[in-house]
Amino acid sequence: MTVFTGVGVALVTIRDDADQPDAPATAKLAGDLVAAGMQAVLACGTTGEADRLTDAQRRDITAAVRAAVPAATPVIAGTGAASAERAAALTAEAVKAGADAVLAWPPPGGADLRAYYATVRDAAAGVPVLAYHVPWVSAPGVPVDALAGLPVAGIKDSSGDPDRLLAEVAHYSGATYVGSSALLALAGPLGAAGAILAVANVAPELCAAAFGGSAAAQRDLTDVHLAVRADGPRLLRRMLAERR
Fold it and tell me: Mind telling me the catalytic residues?
């Protein structure tokens, strides 16, 4: 099952002057980005700083984003956690809030991946589950050769490793979503299902063009890609605030 094709955004969580999450402003950003061409929205992921959100705030943001974008646009909720039980609880709440799919990084330390994702799948109650390879959050992550045995619809790979991307596209039959804006002009022409990108918060059109195979768009993304890689969500919020 392919959750979507094309470029989606890993949504930043807008925060107010008291540094509290602003669900309405975050949902408005989601709507604006879908209007600019984004094919899916990931809420409460690593770019959304889910570790800074309470469970109630996660639910509010997911529900607000779901209400703000067209019904045909999938809303994916981040539900990765350090234990299967916690990931299952987050997944069940995300589905109740309206998520169309969930994205879960595995527990650090190389736990039983099949059992972990089976628990998340059961909690998702028919909603697609995407594995998430993000080794700086949950090392060692999800090995490519383990993917075929996991009860997931696909994977988001944020490693930025072109060799790994080649292996995924060539040898994994599920959907591969690239998470690095450095590899878009490679991933799209290779046949990756799509991309889920932090940089799409501020450069959605360039991301879509690069995934479509434009080398010029890929080069034009260089400075913002490197800046966001270095300074993450704080920079994204600052850039968005300056534009407003």
Answer: 132, 156
| pLDDT for residue 87 | 98
CA distance 173 to 194: 14
Lookup: tokens for 153: 């619809």
State the Cα–Cα distance between residues 4 and 82, nearest whole angstrom: 27
Superfamily of domain 6-243: Aldolase class I (3.20.20.70)
Rounded-to-5 percentages of helix, strand, coil across the chain: 50, 15, 40
pTM value > 0.85 = yes
Six-digit token string for 15: 């925060």
For residue 93, which phi and psi values (nearest 5 degrees)? -70, -40
Task: State how far the Cα of 36 lies from the Cα of 31, in Å rounded to an integer.
Answer: 9
- Distance in angstroms (rounded) separating the CA atoms of residues 170 and 164: 10
Residue 179 near residue 211, CB atoms below 8 Å:
no
Do residues 119 and 87 lie in contact, with contact meaning Cβ atoms separated by under 8 Å? Answer: yes
Q: Which helix (H) or strand (E) holds 196?
A: strand 194-197
Task: Answer yes or no: are the C-beta atoms of 87 and 79 closer than 8 Å.
Answer: yes
pLDDT at 3: 97
End-to-end CA distance of the chain: 38
